[in-house]
Each structure stands twice: as structure tokens, then as C-alpha cells.
Design a protein that fits this description.
With 153 residues, the chain is of the alpha+beta class. The chain contains 3 helices and 6 strands, in the order βαββαβαββ. Strands 1, 2, 3, 4, 5 and 6 form a 6-stranded antiparallel sheet that branches. Strand 2 and strand 3 form a beta hairpin. It is globular. The two termini are 24 Å apart.
Length: 153
């Protein structure tokens, strides 16, 4: 499953994670789940995550790793990272799996090699848009399906 941060846009695979990245901050203890207890569904766990006020992001620059092209994100990355961290801790504490790689805010643009993409994105800074909610998205055979969304105040 993938968490997506959604907003209204106006009219890649990322570089490998650093060695030694941990799925839970050092010093934080993940409470053990009682033996035989099934993990709570992520929708239930995420319902309790504190939600910050809506914030603004924008596309800025981009890059490629292998055949995947991506656009970078700018704007209020502190708010985005804080929301992502709250979500990551809640899921980890509930015993649910989460990608241990460091968070790299981006928008995947293409999964195909596009040699003209990088010059187009080079130096690009797009307009801001409001992030109004976040979503739990399930990826099945390359197709993405929203399972649940939560509004930001």
C-alpha cells in the first residue's frame, strides 16, 4: 500500500536510501502486539493520526533513476514530512509494514525512459497548490486504487 498526499493541481523510483536507515526513530519503542492478535486495519490506525491544517506544495525540478522519471516537490515540506512521520509512527506502532526507506517527496511522472523529460523539468518551478487531504492507496498490478481519504482541516 502507498500513502498519497492529495490536493488539487492547478491549470521514480527515487535514488537508493542511505545505508543504515531505520524504520522507527532511534529511542522509540514499538509496543509488542499481544500473541495471536491480528493487526488493526490501516484505515482504523490512520483515523487517529493528528491532522495538520492544509498546506501548500509545488512541483520543482526533477530527476530520473533508471527508466523512472519524477518531479520534485517544494513548498511546505516541513508540514508534509511531519504528517508523513505521524503516519509512519502510527502504522509501525500498530505492527503494520511500512517502507523503511527515507521519505523522498516526489511525483512519479513516467515509468518509461523519457530522454526529453529531464531538460523539461530542469529548473522548473510550478505554481503552489493546496494539500487538502491524504489517502491510503492500494497498488495492485501497477494500478492504484484509493481505499480511504482523510481531510485536512
Amino acid at each position: 500500500m502507498t500513502l498519497a498526499f492529495l490536493g488539487t493541481l492547478p491549470t521514480g523510483t527515487m535514488p537508493p536510501p542511505p545505508a543504515g536507515s531505520a524504520p522507527h526513530p532511534p529511542g522509540d519503542e514499538v509496543p509488542p502486539r499481544p500473541a495471536g492478535e491480528a493487526p488493526r486495519p490501516p484505515e482504523v490506525v490512520l483515523e487517529a493520526v493528528p491532522r495538520p491544517p492544509s498546506f501548500r506544495l509545488r512541483l520543482t525540478g526533477g530527476g530520473r533513476f533508471g527508466s523512472v522519471g519524477w518531479a520534485g516537490l517544494g513548498g511546505d515540506l516541513q508540514a508534509l514530512r511531519a504528517l508523513r512521520e505521524s503516519i509512519r509512527v502510527a502504522l509501525t506502532d500498530a505492527g503494520l509494514p511500512i517502507d523503511p526507506r527515507p521519505f523522498q517527496p516526489h511525483l512519479t511522472v513516467t515509468y518509461r525512459a523519457a530522454t526529453d523529460l529531464l531538460p523539461t523539468l530542469d529548473g522548473y518551478v510550478g505554481p503552489d497548490w493546496p494539500v487538502t487531504h491524504f489517502a491510503l492507496v492500494e497498488s495492485t498490478h501497477g494500478e492504484y486504487h484509493p481505499r480511504h481519504t482523510w481531510p485536512l482541516p
